[in-house]
Amino acid sequence: MSVVVQKFGGSSVADVPKLEAVAERVATTRATGLDVVVVISAMGKTTDELLALAHQIDESPPRRELDMLVTTGERISMALLSMAIQKRGCDAISFTGSQSGIITNDRHFDARIIEVRPWRLEDELARGRVVIVAGYQGMSYRREITTLGRGGSDTTAIALAAALGAERAEIYSDVDGVYSADPRVVPDARHLPELTYAQMQEMAEAGAKVLNSTAVEFARRSRIAIHARATFKPGRETVVHEDAAYDATPAVVGRKDLARLDVAASELPAALAEIEALGLSVRESTVDPDRARLWIARGVDWAAARAALGARGALEDGLGAVSVVAPQLAGRPRVMAEAMAALASAGATPRQVSTAPLRWSALVPEAAVDDAVRALHDALAPSA
Ligand code: ASP
Ligand code: MG
Question: Would you say the CB of residue 179 lies under 6 angstroms from ligand 1?
Answer without folding.
Answer: no
